[in-house]
Amino acid sequence: MDVTTGFYTQDFWTWWLALYLYLGGLGAATLTTTFLTDMYMKPHRELVLWGAWSGIVMLALGSAMLFFHLLDHMAVIHLLNPLVLINQPTAWIAWGTQFIVWMMVWGFLYALPYMMDSPFFTRIPIVKNILNWGLIQKIGRTCGRHCRLCGWMATINGIGTVVYTGLVLQSFPAVALWHNPGVPLLFTVSAFSTAMAFLLLVLNLAIKKREEDRPLRVFYERTDLILISVELVILFSFFFYLQRGSQSAVVSAQMLWNDWGWMVGFIGFGLLVPFFIELKGVVKGWNSPAPIMLASVLVLAGGYLLRHYFMYAGVYARPW
Amino acid sequence: MTRYAMVIDLNTCVGCNACMAACAMENQTPVWDNKWRTYVHDKEIGTAEDIHRRFFPRLCNHCSNPACMSVCPTGATYQLDNGIVQVDEDLCLGCRACALACPYDARYEVTYADVRKGREFFGEEAYQRSRPSMDKCNFCAERVAIGQKPACVETCVGSARLFGDLDNPDDPVARIVSSGAARPLMAHLGTEPNVYYIDDMKRRG
After folding, report:
1. Crossing angle of helices A214-243/A182-201, nearest 10°?
2. What is the pLDDT of residues A61-72, one digit of tens each?
3. How far A8 CA sits from the closest chain B CA (Å)?
4. Does the N-terminal or the C-terminal CB of chain B have fewer CB atoms within 10 Å?
5. CATH number of the domain residue B134 falls in
6. Which of A103-107, A128-132, B41-45, B196-200 reaches the highest mean pLDDT?
7. How far is A286 from A297, CA to CA, in rounded Å?
8. Closest-CA residue in chain B for A312?
9. In the predicted model, is pLDDT for residue B201 greater than 80?
10. Residue B170 sits in which domain range?
11. Which pLDDT value is given to residue B205?
12. How many domains is chain B built from?
């Protein structure tokens, strides 16, 4: 039976799901990083509001990608029920959905007290009225008193979401590229790296408090540099893991390492170029924020390319 | 206990595709979109004069440790006590995780468009499906429940498909499997499949 082995990729999960995993990881890591920064490094209202709302929008957009991809949209109600975790504890999509939903809820609650004090939100006509409702004021004050609790609930769900984006691929046993413990690790590191890049863009483009936020920007740059290095090490391990072993792995390796989009697009421009730009920034510094912003944009694009190519290079070896 | 299994003899499959036709009619599959619960691959192996044509029937392997069931987020994929793995179309989201988890390519999409077309093709009253889902073979569980064989087994002209109970030592299927003459596909993945193949002697080695 073995002489007729054929190699197949799948077309069930394509760029829609690559975007879902990308936005899920990026959104959750952005929220988590923002809240941890606010709780333990530097209280920062603008950063929390930018991080929380952009994270929530990214999580919502990512979830929309999954939702519109479903065959039966009405049946999603079964997935939103938290009891799904008791009925199907082995299904990572069930965990991921709950993590994403609760991440958005706790993320909103953490940001609510800041929204009530924000000149921007209190100027928007309908939002201003909603923020003045008695119930919202009460919730906001309670969340303000228990901001650490809200922050940690959001963080736990955020880390759950980030790790889930890798675990869901790991749960498919027939594809060697996916079914290994390196995938959750790689996706987690990549998600936090893209989150650092996104927050560097926010700090440089939207908040623009150059001197006041300098230590924060330096911290994010250094952390991103370390994360990119770790990502390169994991990819180096993947390269050798895929070279030998199952036929599925070998064919995936041939697909990835012979593809210009993977080699030049992701590894070259998505990792190596930002690595050297950020390295120069950390060692000698830049006179302008432009190189770091360029590196951030490249890291963000690379994060998507990683998931895109991982999705398309999953190979099934079948005996027909 | 009963544990249903199938043995497929690659030496006697003649590639007539009667199993595909019988299954499609029995289970109302979207044949207009080339979607089947069982499929017979037709492949030429070898070169020049030393060429051989092989027919390879495949279907859901009704694994004892089904990967499609563990990844299903709503429990739409479930297993009966007799080992048959089924899909509850009312619970199925159609997220397709089961299709990615299955090593045997047993899943296919039934969309809303397929449901509409199915009503035309099989008849409004006869058509049993009302919602989309990720469909698959269920060993014709309704037929099996009343003592009949699955449609593909019943119709096979070469008797290439045998259906029986692995937990009954007197069943021919159990005897063939315990003799080692039939092997499961990709057993190394740990799915513990319950469809076994008797290798094609001409291609052995």
Report:
1. 150
2. 999 999 999 999
3. 10
4. C
5. 3.30.70.20
6. A103-107
7. 17
8. B100
9. no
10. 4-203
11. 42
12. 1
Report CB contact under 8 Å: A1, B112: no
Please state, as a whole number, how many other Cβ atoms lie within 10 Å of the Cβ of residue A212. Answer: 11
Q: CB-CB: which of B94, B100, B112 is closest to A13?
A: B100
> What number is the average pLDDT over the span A256-263?
96
Q: Is B111 on the interface with A (CB under 8 A)?
A: yes
Set of chain A residues whose Cβ sits within 8 Å of the Cβ of B96: 12-13, 69, 71
Q: Is B8 on the interface with A (CB under 8 A)?
A: no
Cβ partners under 8 Å of residue A292, min gap 6: A200, A204, A217, A221, A277, A278, A281, A286
CATH topology of domain A2-318: Formate dehydrogenase/DMSO reductase fold (1.20.1630)
- Report B:32-71 residues touching A (Cβ under 8 A): 41, 43, 45, 54, 56, 58, 67, 70-71
The domain limits of chain A are 2-318
| Selection from A182, A185, A186, A191 nearest residue A162 by Cα | A191
pLDDT bin (cut points 50, 70, 90) of residue A1 is very low
More confident residue, B189 or A3: B189
Beta carbon pairs, A and B, within 8 Å: 123
Distance (Å) from the alpha carbon of A261 to chain B's nearest alpha carbon:
24
Is any Cβ of chain A less than 8 angstroms from the Cβ of B25? no
Token pair recorded at residue B35? 């979607």
> Is B90 touching A (CB cutoff 8 A)?
yes
pLDDT tens digits, A201-230: 999 999 977 788 999 999 999 999 999 999
Give the per-residue pLDDT at B202. Answer: 65
pLDDT at A35 over 90: yes
Q: What is the 3-state secondary structure (H, E, C) of B62-122?
A: CCCCCHHHHHCCCCCEEECCCCCEEECCCCCCCCCHHHHHCCCCCCEEECHHHHHHHHHHH
Instruction: Measure the CA angle with vertex A238, ends A236 and A240; round to 5°.
Output: 75
Residues of B with Cβ-Cβ distance to A10 under 8 angstroms: 99-100
